UniProtKB/TrEMBL annotation:
It comes from Desulfofarcimen acetoxidans (strain ATCC 49208 / DSM 771 / KCTC 5769 / VKM B-1644 / 5575) (Desulfotomaculum acetoxidans). One of its GO terms (biological process) is iron-sulfur cluster assembly. Belongs to the Mrp/NBP35 ATP-binding proteins family. Homodimer. Residues 1-11, 18-32 have a biased composition (Polar residues). This is Iron-sulfur cluster carrier protein. Residues 1-32 are annotated as: Disordered. HAMAP family: Mrp_NBP35. ATP binds at G47, K48, G49, G50, V51, G52, K53, S54. Keywords: ATP-binding, Hydrolase, Iron, Iron-sulfur, Metal-binding, Nucleotide-binding. Binds and transfers iron-sulfur (Fe-S) clusters to target apoproteins. Can hydrolyze ATP.
């Protein structure tokens, strides 16, 4: 058996006996910056836009941070970044000459890196071609001083284009949380993301159906405003676990808009044990 390249550690064939890093054509995972120690990388993905990936990313990070874990968020949604706004941060990251310092969230010290923090104005558009966008994600992995982290949560952009592909091929992702909404249209697009993760051999932790109806604050009745939940069916069809069904909650969108998502109380604590292995 040929000597293994340390970059091959996360390859599914690393223990197969047929590994030869000198002839392997699989894209190599990027090593960590030697000054970082990131224990687990979890990506949040959908394929479909606007279903709540950034909200789920933030809620997972807040849950973990409240449990005492050291957490970072890599905002890989380069052209539509919303993480800084949800956490109410706008400080500009500075470099120590070797790496870029992430910005810490206000309450729970979650380390955040997002392209929006590097723009002059938060509404400046990022008009870059795919390879440059993908390069930014690699730099957020390699050139940011994340330090010691128990979890790095990666907020993926919608779609199955250059950025998700680069993230899956270059970052040592331990698992993906898939976010969908009840509409069949959303599920059709989300299936593409699930297939992509399977093709790239990145483990899927499970599915979260978000925006699944709303509970009337007056009468307590549940209204399926986007139709009946398709969560069970979608999980079964794709042979992945159903992690959670989240209703629409006006409190959540208000806290996101105020930059106070760390104050939201209905957290995703019950799914965080699944992120450990
Ligand atoms: N369960 C929910 N209840 C109420 N509002 C929600 C819920 N989930 C998400 N939202 C709101 O919906 C909007 C879109 O959510 P979010 O930005 O998380 O979606 P996204 O999938 O990351 O979007 P994009 O595809 O643009 O990256 C936000 O304003 C957010 O506050």
């Amino acid at each position: 058996m040929a000597k293994q390249n340390p970059d091959c550690q996360s390859c599914s064939e690393k223990d197969s006996g047929s590994c030869d890093s000198t002839t392997c054509s699989k894209p190599q995972k990027l090593p960590q910056n030697p000054s970082n120690n990131i224990k687990r990388v979890v990506a949040v993905m959908s394929g479909k836009g606007g279903v709540g990936k950034s909200s789920v990313t933030s809620l997972v990070a807040v849950s973990l941070a409240k449990q005492g874990y050291k957490v970072g968020i890599l905002d890989a949604d380069i052209t539509g970044p919303s993480i800084p706004k949800m956490f109410g941060i706008s400080d500009r990251p500075v470099s120590d000459g070797k790496a870029l310092m992430p910005i810490w969230s206000k309450k729970l010290n979650i380390k955040i890196m997002s392209l929006n923090l590097l723009l002059d104005n938060e509404d400046d558009p990022v008009i870059w071609r795919g390879p440059i966008l993908a390069g930014a994600v690699k730099q957020f992995w390699s050139d940011v001083a994340w330090g010691n982290l128990d979890y790095l949560i990666v907020d993926m952009p919608p779609g199955t284009g250059d950025i998700p592909l680069t993230a899956m091929q270059s970052l040592p992702i331990d698992g993906i949380i898939i976010v969908t909404s009840p509409q069949e249209l959303a599920n059709m697009v989300v299936r593409k993301a699930i297939k992509m993760a399977k093709m790239e051999e990145v483990p899927i932790i499970g599915l979260i159906e978000n925006m699944s109806g709303i509970v009337c604050p007056h009468c307590g009745d549940h209204f399926n405003i986007f139709g009946e939940s398709t969560a069970q069916k979608a999980a079964q069809q794709n042979a992945i676990p159903l992690l959670k069904v989240l209703p629409l909650d006006p409190k959540l969108s208000a806290l996101c808009d105020q930059g106070d998502i760390e104050k939201y109380e209905q957290l995703l604590d019950d799914i965080t044990p699944l992120l450990k292995n």
